[in-house]
Structure formats: C-alpha cells, structure tokens
C-alpha cells in the first residue's frame, strides 16, 4: 500500500474528536512511547482510495477534492485505482463502476486519462 503520511504530535492528548467523521473512520491511529515522549502516528489512506471514496458521493466539493488530488499527484496510479474499483464491483458493489465512469468522464475535461482505463471499466461492466 505505499508509504503513509505520518503526523507526529508531541502531546499524547491530541484530540481527534474535532476531525470530520469521514476522516476519523479511515484512520489507523497508534500511540508510540519513545524516550519518555509520546508521539501520535497516523497512517492515512493512499490517494487512490481517497479518490474512490469521493467518487461514490454526490457532493461537488468531493469532485473538487478529486481534481486537487490528481493535479498535485504526478504519479497518480490509475491502474491501482481501477484494480480496486473492479475488485469492489466483483464483491457486490454494483454501482461503483458507474460512479467511477462518471467521475472519470468529468475529469477528462481537465486532465488526460488513457483510453485503456475506460476500456477496463467497460469490460468489467459488460460481465454483469
């Protein structure tokens, strides 16, 4: 799964209660004690997972977030994203292919997405 973003806080009483629920739901948090200091280590999802999660919503701000993620990430792994989408589809999420296609078609107005990724979506959809 790639290298996670790590946030180190010097105070073990850092509160996550004020974080948005969607952020808290997907965090794996551990408290590490080293040299009489506590540090909070937070592993965050890969960008591809964030894009997939935001693709299945209908909020405009999520599409804007997806654009920002992809614009800033020059090595965005489309194949990794599509492999996960196809796996989710095979496991019973029948809407994920349509949601991802919709987002990719919209993104295509702003960035180049190779045809082979659309072909993979359409091939998987036809299997249903």
Describe the structure.
- This protein starts with 20 loop residues before the first helix and ends with a helix.
- It has helices at 21-25, 47-55, 60-72, 78-90, 96-107, 115-126; strands spanning 28-34, 37-43.
- It folds into two domains: 1-44, no CATH class; 47-126, no CATH class.
- Helices cover 50% and strands 11% of the residues.
- The chain is mostly helical.
- Strands 1-2 form a two-stranded antiparallel sheet.
- Strand 1 and strand 2 (37-43) form a beta hairpin.
- It has six helices and two strands, in the order αββααααα.
- Mean pLDDT is 77; it is low at 1-29.
Tell me the layout of helices and strands.
Elements: H1 21-25, E1 28-34, E2 37-43, H2 47-55, H3 60-72, H4 78-90, H5 96-107, H6 115-126
Antiparallel strand pairs: 1-2
Q: Tell me the number of structural domains.
A: 2
Helix % is 40-55%
Q: In terms of per-residue confidence, which ranges show pLDDT below 50 for 5 or more consecutive residues? A: 1-29
**Which class best fits the helix and strand makeup?**
mainly alpha
**Rg, please?**
17 Å
What's the overall geometry?
Answer: globular
User: In order across it, which strands form the biggest sheet?
Assistant: 1-2
Q: Please trace the helix and strand order, writing H or E for each element.
A: HEEHHHHH
What's the number of extended β-strand segments?
2
Question: What is the beta-strand fraction?
Answer: 5-15%
Largest sheet: 2 strands, antiparallel
Mean pLDDT score: 77
Count of helical regions: 6
For the terminal residues, how far apart are their CA atoms? Answer: 29 Å
